[in-house]
Amino acid sequence: MQYKKYEGGIYSETDCTSHGVLVVGYGKEDSQDYWLIKNFWGEEGYFRMARNVGMCGINLINTYPYL
């Protein structure tokens, strides 16, 4: 699991496992879209993962709050 070695940047490896994450935002850097994920390692408690490329099944099952 390479993401355990993540120290910064936009993660775009294909070696990942399936587990729940809290996506708190999204953005773009140098033409690369990314999800901003709350985490306990990485960039001051956040993790950036490539967006719109089907990374790690992040788009397969999701939930969101609504009123």
From TrEMBL:
Coiled coil: none annotated. This is Peptidase C1A papain C-terminal domain-containing protein. Residues 2-65 form the Peptidase C1A papain C-terminal domain. Belongs to the peptidase C1 family. It comes from the Eukaryota. GO terms for molecular function: cysteine-type peptidase activity. PROSITE patterns: THIOL_PROTEASE_HIS (PS00639). GO terms for biological process: proteolysis. InterPro entries: Papain-like_cys_pep_sf, Pept_his_AS, Peptidase_C1A, Peptidase_C1A_C.
